[in-house]
Amino acid sequence: MPAVGATRNSLSVPSIGQMLSAFPKVLVGLAAVLSGVANACGSALRSSDQHGGGLQTKANDRWENHVAPHMRACLSKPWVSQVLPDRAIIECLVQGIAKWEKESGDSYAAEVVSRSVNYRKLGSSHPAPDLAGPTPRALKHFMRKVDKVVRSTNEYKNIMERTDILLWSNSSEYLSIPAGSARFTADRLIKFLEVNEAVDSFKEAAALLSYRLNELHKSQGEWLYSLNPELMRSRADLAAFEEKVDHNYVAPDASMSNHQLRVLLSRLASHLNEKSPHWVS
User: Fold this and answer.
1) Residue 280 dihedral angles phi and psi, to the nearest 5°
2) Which of 90, 101, 103, 236 has the lowest CB atom count within 10 Å?
3) 64 in Cβ contact with 38 (< 8 Å)
4) Are 144 and 231 in contact (CB under 8 A)?
5) Domain boundaries, the chain
6) Chain-centre distance of CA 197, in angstroms?
7) Residue 25 — φ and ψ, nearest 5°?
8) In sequence order, what DSSP letters do the residues of 165-230 get, joined into one string?
9) Radius of gyration of the chain (CA)
10) CA dihedral defined by 255, 136, 139, 150, rounded to 10 degrees?
């Protein structure tokens, strides 16, 4: 049965990140300035007399209580290991701006963001022309980055757990695996299904899970596209990435192919082996 099409809502990627996809390094300088402000706030500057009182005190308090903690938390996330430090700082700043815009009680918050960006001419860029697509090496490198970020998400882990349960319900052989058994592989998992003549029924039931992986990869790819301009030079390159994702995972309104079955079970095999490292090689 074809996978059910759905609106992509796997992860919440700040819309402002799309808008500012090509920040110049001046924003990193801004981060350093703001960091200096945060350090200065630790001393007598916290005094309302020396701050100028009122709004200035509130601004400094807001930095220490909201902005600085957000930056530390953001820079501690797994995806940071996949991008250059300056770009991680830029992305975390952008996420902080998007968070402020959403939560601020200031009704003009969005307009302030828009005007400030335009005034400083941030985000202006000269993207590469739409070419035939990325080089095979660049595409492979980019897919590896996306894959590492995808694997770090809770949604990916949930999909793997559901795939495990589905395999368990379709194979009596899988139920009776002895302790200390050999490590899992895609071939071994397919064999469990073949013994029970359950390959087709598993493919039909697992199509939606593969489709969710499709969405998850595209969502993360769209986001990481903005942070890897040397790999993804244009929207044509991103389109080539998404075509590759559709090859590996079930696309909307499509049935699961044998290749997509193998990809899904390869993912599950890796997941199971990571959960139980005691398996015999």
Assistant:
1) -75, 140
2) 103
3) yes
4) no
5) 23-120, 136-275
6) 36
7) -70, -10
8) HHHHHH-HHHHTPPTTPBPP-HHHHHHHHHHTT-HHHHHHHHHHHHHHHHHHHHHHHHHHHTT-TT
9) 24
10) 60
Q: Give the integer Cα–Cα distance in Å for 224 and 281.
A: 35
Q: What is the DSSP string of 112-166?
A: HHHHHHHHHTTT---PPP--S---HHHHHHHHHHHHHHHHTSHHHHHHHHHHHHH
pLDDT 10s digits, 19-37: 444 444 445 444 544 554 4
User: Is residue 178 within 8 Å of 236, Cβ to Cβ?
Assistant: no
Best CA proximity match to 264, nearest among 198, 215, 214: 214
Q: How many residues does the chain have?
A: 281
Q: CB neighbours of 12 closer than 8 A, spacing ≥ 6? A: none
Q: CA angle, corner 35, sides to 33 and 40, nearest 5?
A: 95
What b/e sequence results for 126-144 when a residue is b if at least 16 CB atoms lie within 10 Å of its CB, and e otherwise? eeeeeeebbeeebbeebbe
How many Cβ atoms sit within 10 Å of the Cβ of residue 114?
14
Q: Cα separations (Å) of 117 from 20, 22, 25, 121?
A: 8, 12, 14, 6
DSSP class of 53: S
Taking only the tens place, the pLDDT of each residue in 174-217 is 767 765 678 899 999 999 999 989 999 999 999 999 999 999 99
Reduced to 3 states (helix: H, G, I; strand: E, B; else coil), residue 105 is coil
